[in-house]
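Re-run with default settings, no changes from the original entry. Doing this only to confirm the output is reproducible before filing.
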Amino acid sequence: MTMRSTISYNIVMRAYASCCGASTSYANKAEVVLSEMFREWKKQEADFAAWNSRIKSGDSSETTIREDGGDNNSDEDEKLRPRTITVMPDTISFGTVMNAYAKEGNPKRAEIWLRRAQSSGLLDEESPVVCYNTLISAYAQLGDVDKALALLTELSEREENGQGGPDQVSYNSVLHACAKSRRSDAGILAQSLLDRMRGKVPLSVATFSSAMNCWASVGRADKAEMLLLTLENNWKERQGHVCPNVRVYSVVIKAYAESNHPYKATKAFQLLQRMNRLSSSTTSDTGRKSKPENPYVRPNIITYNSVLNALATTSREGKDDPAQVKKWLFGIYDTLTSSECHLQPDHFTYGTVLKACSSDLLLEDTAMPNFCERVFEDAREAGQVSHGVLFQFRKAAPASAYYDVFAETRFEPTGIPSEWCRNVKMPRKVRRPKQQEFVDGVKTWDHGPGWG
């Protein structure tokens, strides 16, 4: 019979954990395997202890010496002697089960195994940090800032005692929790976490983008831009090794687009111009091209879509100039649809441009009806007509123009022809974990965030 080992148990648990999300029972199956692993380990330890006690007390049968120098009872003792301990839960074992429950949105059950792992004495000084990070990340997915902060404090106390303390993943997970929670003090918490990290833990792009999202969640896009400026200045002065990239710029632009800033369109467009300037090479009088200052901030289609959203959501209550907003809208659209552009507009692009056409800032402009018809025609030719594009076109275009489109194709506006939407790629639905409770061992789900 093949002897079981720690590796074989871990393989089975990892197989169950990899299936979490498709069903809500695999984490429990992984836990059953770990519980069996615990029992086997305790049994092997007890067998060894009993054998050692027997040897020390001299309770083993009297040994008779054979003529060849051996003893008559050695074979019997050899059968009774336990083999080496082949099963012992390790960091991978505990981490796998915790990760399985984290995927199912049940961090409370994962925390039970963290405490059991700590009390078992099977983890070394550095291993608990990995388990803590798994648990902090699970609470972060639920936006439970208080619990994530409490676990981070525990890690910090361990560091004061000379044990493994929080690392970059720990802080980034808590920052992510702050951003998801949308608490009124999310930005202040993010700033305090950044201050704690400086000098202890290296900062990364993910760190800054999460902190920016915290400020964005409370409508403070200006604070997010201040973090971006800090990051840029540190990089220019070689005081930091984190290089600003398109991700952090897009976060700030998105923050302005979703805020009530009076100059949201102006701010978003200025950031786009800065990105284009930093990522473009310049040509000297001698015809020699210089390297771009920062090629990593080259705008992508997500960046442009965020800028377009800022233009589309600008209202008359703001202080943006309608003539400038119209000029920027036409200019960005012409840039994206030109043959020289390396980017491919998607259905979000066309839908957001049409959304801008129907905004209260530009709705009364006489050039909008013809422009929105042109945009919809381009979307049809590109195969990028989604239900969102159709909805925005109906809002922006005159009623006659909307129904004329369907009259030409003899098509009832209850669906979309396959030729029109052939290139539409909808975002994959990601299962977001829900908060769940256990009542008498039975899992019950509350009305959590559900499916994205």
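The longest strand covers residues 436-439. The chain has 19 helices and two strands.
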